[in-house]
Amino acid sequence: MLHISNKTQGASSHTAEHNRLELVVKRILDIVGSIVLLTIFSPLLFVIVIAIKLDSPGPAIYRRRVFGFQGKTFLMYKFRSMVVNAHEILQQNAKLREEYENSLKIDADPRVTAVGRILRKTSLDEFPQLVNVLRGDMSLVGPRQLGDIELARYGDAQEMVLSVKPGLSGLWQVSGRHAVSFERRVELDLYYVNHQSLWLDLIILLKTPLAVVTGRGAV
Questions:
Q1: What pLDDT shows up at residue 219?
Q2: CA dihedral defined by 56, 57, 59, 60, rounded to 10 degrees?
Q3: What is the pLDDT of residue 7?
Q4: Could you tell me which of 72, 56, 71 has the C-alpha nearest to residue 118?
Q5: Rounded to whole angstroms, how far apart are CA atoms 165 and 143?
Q6: N or C: which end of the chain has fewer CB within 10 A?
Q7: pTM here?
Q8: What is the DSSP string of 124-173?
Q9: What is the pLDDT of residues 91-112, one digit of tens each?
Q10: Between β-strands 139-141 and 167-169, what pairing exists: parallel, antiparallel or unpaired?
Q11: Low-confidence ranges of the chain (pLDDT < 70)
Q12: Element (H, E) at 39
């Protein structure tokens, strides 16, 4: 029979309690942070909605179903940066479809609108995800959100990457975004899952503004 000392049990209990406390603090920071950012930037968000509507026909908000914590799906919100029939164009253009299937990105994507290029370069298209953070679907920091195609490429690591909430920002976003390979993106996501802490979240949040300003890896 395996014997577990009281000392070991105490250490395990302390670790579990510490982890629960960090999760509570992280959730409080998510709520407070998303409310503050939405409040501060609300005038800018209103201007973006108008710009999108004037630039091309269609809704200002794009909704995409992605996987979240423990594989639960939810609708992720973004400002629309493409024409409304972007999916149909992709399916009808063999060259674009091949490029996307190979690297899950398209350089100089012709489906991106004029306003959309600015939104993507500045990461402003991601701002509506603050609503997802407020609702609890996402966190301010975490792995990148995953759709069907992306999740399939995580292979045996799928369960691990889905063990935490996806983030508005993360190691991928502050490490070059699309300038790094998808394989590197997987490595960064798994590193975050294995080393997650409030301290790591703080470092990523402090690096995020510089990544946004430089626009490195934006497409």
A1: 58
A2: 20
A3: 47
A4: 56
A5: 7
A6: N
A7: 0.85
A8: GGGTTHHHHHHHTS-EEESSPPB-HHHHHTTGGGHHHHTTS--EEE-TTG
A9: 888 888 888 877 777 888 889 9
A10: parallel
A11: 1-18, 215-219
A12: helix 6-40
Q: What is the pLDDT of residue 50?
A: 97
Find the helix or strand (DSSP H, E) in which 68 lies. none
Beta strand segments in the chain, E? 61-67, 73-79, 139-141, 167-169
3-state secondary structure of 78: strand
* Cβ contact 30:140 at 8 Å: yes
CA-CA distance, 60 to 80, in Å (whole number)?
Answer: 5
Q: Of the candidates 106, 104, 86, which has an alpha carbon nearest to the alpha carbon of residue 96?
A: 106
Q: Cα dist. 202→26, 107, 164, 194 in Å?
A: 10, 31, 17, 16
pLDDT score recorded for residue 1: 42
pLDDT of residue 187: 93
- Read off the tokens for 165: 């909430």
Nearest to 142 by CA among 163, 158, 123, 127: 163
Sequence length of the chain is: 219
Pair of tokens at residue 46: 């209103």
Residues 6+ apart with CB under 8 A from 204: 141, 169, 170, 171, 173, 174
Structure tokens at 69: 């914590």
Q: How many angstroms separate the CA atoms of 27 and 139, rounded?
A: 8
